[in-house]
Amino acid sequence: MQHVTKIYKGRGGTVDAVKDVSLKVEPGEIYGIIGHSGAGKSSLIRCMNLLERPSSGKVLFGGRELTSLKERELQAERRRIGMIFQHFNLLTSATVRENIAFPLVLAGQSKRRQAARVDELLELVGLQAHGDKYPAQLSGGQKQRVGIARALAAEPAVLLCDEATSALDPQTTSSILSLLLSINEKLGLTIILITHEMQVIRSICDRVAVMDAGRVVEEGPVLDVFLRPAHGVTKQFADELSELEGGAPLPRRAGSKLVRLHFVGEETYEPVLFEAVKDSAVQCAILQGTVSRMKHTPYGQLLVELSGSPSDIDGAIASLRSSGIDAEVLP
Ligand SMILES: Nc1ncnc2c1ncn2[C@@H]1O[C@H](COP(=O)(O)OP(=O)(O)OP(=O)(O)O)[C@@H](O)[C@H]1O
Questions:
Q1: Alpha-carbon distance 170 to 4, whole Å?
Q2: Are 192 and 157 in contact (CB under 8 A)?
Q3: Domain's final residue, options 178, 211, 240
Q4: Domain co-membership, 224 together with 284
Q5: Are the beta carbons of 134 and 92 closer than 8 angstroms?
Q6: Could you tell me if residue 246 is inside a domain?
Q7: How far is it, in rounded angstroms, from Cα 89 to Cα 203?
Q8: Whose C-alpha lies nearest to ligand 1, atom 2?
Q9: 318 is in which domain, residue-wise?
Q10: Hey, which residues does 259 pair with through a beta bridge?
Q11: Does residue 249 lie within any of the structural domains?
């Protein structure tokens, strides 16, 4: 996307939903866009396949400028961009098989090829036993699996996910995210998703854009963006991960320093804290801590209180930093 804006004009005035957004998604990656309600995420993702026409700016897909194509050419390109939705958008009077076959019917495929492709897709999303059911007979997670199978029927290069797990409970969300990740890894499918949930970004995304009031305020690899957030909104989302903020004030000893440590990758499991203080007179109290994963990378955060002489404390912090640990002294 290059300098995309989306302005809605209505009787009540105009709304600048997307403001000058430029971003590039690489083939094969899972790219997340996170923001609070009203940030402009839906408008942005709908501009990607021109479900909404940008008011200005360009959308390019595999080198072709979608925004300059005629309707017929655009429709052909759109077949290479699948989409799934928060409320699934299934045909309620059609069976699971018929829902999945719908794009193949539109593409004029023979009944035999349709049936073979639907069988493959049912297996891919784990719904072999449910092909003849109607959407009303399925759980939310199963409905989204049908949505995914339908979106993949025409073998798109990109899958757009519009809050695909927001209507699901946490356990079902995890199973749908695992399915998206395995499809990405198995088929090399590029996935672009919008969400307001950090769990979605943390568990499957490679890169992330943070949106606020129509703008992308921060962008980059997920670990970089959330371990060193620069913008206020990014910090709010990062705090959801760390759980180190808020609550009662922490106890402080006179002359001590509060230090927040970030561990990333294999160092998460190394005894670096022990190494940093073992030969000094510094005492170390662990006040809070978490160890988790961002996609496949382990990371940890610890809030520690270091007590001792100022020079010993500084020595311990320098030792931590020389081991590659990100040590942030808190005010
Ligand atoms: N069709 C429309 N007509 C007029 N205004 C709209 C339209 N669609 C969205 N908006 C407005 O554009 C702004 C961005 O909305 P959008 O739905 O893109 O945000 P969002 O981040 O996806 O929020 P949510 O998660 O609540 O859907 C909001 O102020 C919204 O009211």
A1: 33
A2: no
A3: 240
A4: no
A5: yes
A6: no
A7: 25
A8: 8
A9: 257-330
A10: 304, 329
A11: no
CA distance 175 to 164: 12
User: Which of 35-44, 67-76, 241-250, 271-280 shows the lowest per-residue confidence on average (mean pLDDT)?
Assistant: 241-250
Sign of the torsion formed by the C-alpha atoms of 307, 313, 319 and 322? positive
Reported as a pLDDT band with limits 50, 70 and 90, residue 97 is very high
pLDDT above 90 covers a percentage of the chain that reads 72
CA dist list (Å): 151 to 5, 79, 118, 210, 256: 26, 9, 12, 26, 56
Ligand 1 contacts (CB < 6 A) are 8, 10, 15, 17, 35, 37-43, 196
Structure tokens at 256: 């001590």
ipTM of the complex: 0.96
Select from 41, 197, 233 the residue to mutate for testing ligand 1; criterion: most ligand atoms less than 8 Å from CB. 41
CA-nearest residue for atom 18, ligand 1, is 40
Answer yes or no: pTM beyond 0.90. Answer: no
* Same domain, yes or no: 233 and 99: yes
Burial 80-97 (b: 16+ CB within 10 A, else e): ebbbbbbebebeeeebbb
Give residues with Cβ within 8 angstroms of 248, minimum separation 6: none
Beta pairing partners, 56: 5
Taking the centre of ligand 1 as the mean of its atom positions, its distance from the CA of residue 106, in whole angstroms, is: 30
Q: Which residues contact 275 (CB under 8 A, 6 or more apart)?
A: 319, 323
167 with 290, same domain?
no
Look up the CATH number of the domain holding residue 313.
3.30.70.260
User: Which residue bears the tokens 């004009």?
Assistant: 9
* Claim to verify: residue 300 and residue 168 sit in the same structural domain: no
Q: How many domains does the chain have?
A: 2
Please give the average per-residue pLDDT across 48-60, as a whole number.
96
Separation of alpha carbons 1 and 215, rounded Å:
13
Please report, for residues 87, 118, 121, 149, 292, the alpha-carbon distance to residue 124 in angstroms, rounded to integers and kept in the order given. 21, 10, 5, 8, 29
